[in-house]
Amino acid sequence: MIKYKVTLMKQEREELLSITKGGIHNSKKVIHALILLNCDVGKFSDKVSNEDIVKVLKIGDRTIDRIKKKFVEQGFEAALTNSATIIFRFFKALLSK
Q1: In angstroms, what CA-CA distances link 31 with 58, 59, 95, 97?
Q2: Which of 56, 55, 81, 57 is nearest to 67 (CA)?
Q3: Which of 83, 53, 80, 64 is nearest to 5 (CA)?
Q4: Which band of pLDDT confidence, cut at 50, 70 and 90, is reported for residue 32?
Q5: How many angstroms separate the CA atoms of 71 and 79, rounded?
Q6: What distance in Å separates the CA atoms of residue 34 and residue 72, rounded to the nearest whole number?
Q7: Is the pLDDT of residue 12 over 70?
Q8: Residues 6 or more apart in contact with residue 51 via CB below 8 angstroms
Q9: Stated pTM of the model
Q10: Which of the residue ranges 15-24, 57-66, 78-87 would you say has the lowest mean pLDDT?
């Protein structure tokens, strides 16, 4: 299994911190922001293990891996957005016929 490393710039960390500290945001976006902040291996980060993140946020290991992969492959904004699921796309395709 490929291990993805999340390295955030200072500006990205500040944006994620603002998402987690206040305002009106989608719950998934807040969870994703918390995952990215805790998985960061950059110089501005506090090193936290995946096991600790799983325990605190009550999420699965695979969720962390998916968010890391999305961040590395698709970028910062993509990791914060919630993509449509396959089932949703399937029903949308059925309804459009």
Answers
A1: 10, 9, 31, 35
A2: 81
A3: 64
A4: very high
A5: 5
A6: 16
A7: yes
A8: none
A9: 0.81
A10: 78-87
